[in-house]
């Protein structure tokens, strides 16, 4: 079984690339971030033509997450995080599918630092940790995947100095991420690539893709019940180089049934 995550950077703008990727790789579950559309305009019909069913949590012009499953309808468990009623950003979606708990997230970027956006990022990460603890207490096989907007270590960026002032690399962001791992979750890509050097994002500016100046901010965290089933994981890097591609590449984990 293959579970994937893809920050598509606009589902309608990148629809041809997204459908192409789904047909070529055929994941069992595809978690999407930054769909950037309202619920009523999500192009579910295009995915159904390929045999996928899905749920989504949209927002006009930015944010938005979705979970697609090959031949099975995900059963929604929760959308949005509790603890901050005024937070109306579409960034969290949780479902049961194929006997797994699948969580798709688009964590706040947090720039500029310092400022209210960074404060919101840290509060959001605290709320995420609380929800992940509740999932862990259920002792279900679970995966939390998506764009975390955190560069966990200096090995996860082409130049630590170039990103030193960014919210993605601040000590507070990294500490909040480490706390998730300390609660018992496994960073699949980190486990399989202990020396780092694996990127999931390349900026559109300054020839970042051509120079391979990227970093890793898309992650897949596995519960102990699921980590034992991890066979392989990776990044579909070639898809970042295609015409009108997202600035992210899809990540994937392969699990034993």
UniProtKB/TrEMBL annotation:
Keywords: Hydrolase, Magnesium, Manganese, Metal-binding. Mg(2+) binds at residues 7, 34, 147, 149, 247-248. Probably binds two magnesium or manganese ions per subunit. The active site is at 106, 147 (proton donor/acceptor), 248 (proton acceptor). Its cofactor is Mg(2+); Mn(2+). The record marks 248 as: Interaction with DNA substrate. GO terms for biological process: DNA repair. The record marks 218 as: Important for catalytic activity. Residues 5-248 form the Endonuclease/exonuclease/phosphatase domain. GO terms for molecular function: double-stranded DNA 3'-5' DNA exonuclease activity; metal ion binding. The record marks 149 as: Transition state stabilizer. This is Exodeoxyribonuclease III. It comes from Novosphingobium endophyticum. Belongs to the DNA repair enzymes AP/ExoA family. SUPFAM superfamilies: DNase I-like.
């Amino acid at each position: 079984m293959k579970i994937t995550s893809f920050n598509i950077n606009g589902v309608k703008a990148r629809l041809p690339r997204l459908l192409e990727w789904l047909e070529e790789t055929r994941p069992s579950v595809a978690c999407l971030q930054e769909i950037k559309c309202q619920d009523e305009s999500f192009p579910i019909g295009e995915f159904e033509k390929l045999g996928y069913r899905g749920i989504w949590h949209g927002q006009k012009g930015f944010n938005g997450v979705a979970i697609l499953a090959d031949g099975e309808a995900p059963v929604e468990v929760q959308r949005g995080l509790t603890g901050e009623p005024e937070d109306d950003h579409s960034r969290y979606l949780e479902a049961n599918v194929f006997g797994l708990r699948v969580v798709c997230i688009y964590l706040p970027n947090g720039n500029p630092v310092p400022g209210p956006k960074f404060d919101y990022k840290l509060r959001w990460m605290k709320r995420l940790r609380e929800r992940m603890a509740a999932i862990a207490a259920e002792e279900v096989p679970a995966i939390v995947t998506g764009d975390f907007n955190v560069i966990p270590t200096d090995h996860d960026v082409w130049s630590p100095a170039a990103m030193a002032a960014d919210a993605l690399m601040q000590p507070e962001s990294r500490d909040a991420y480490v706390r998730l791992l300390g609660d018992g979750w496994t960073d699949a890509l980190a486990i399989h690539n202990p020396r780092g050097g694996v990127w999931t994002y390349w900026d559109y500016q300054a020839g970042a893709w051509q120079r391979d100046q990227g970093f890793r901010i898309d992650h897949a965290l596995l519960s102990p019940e699921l980590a034992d089933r991890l066979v392989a994981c990776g990044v579909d890097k070639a898809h970042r180089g295609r015409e009108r591609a997202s600035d992210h590449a899809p990540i994937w984990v392969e699990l034993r049934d």
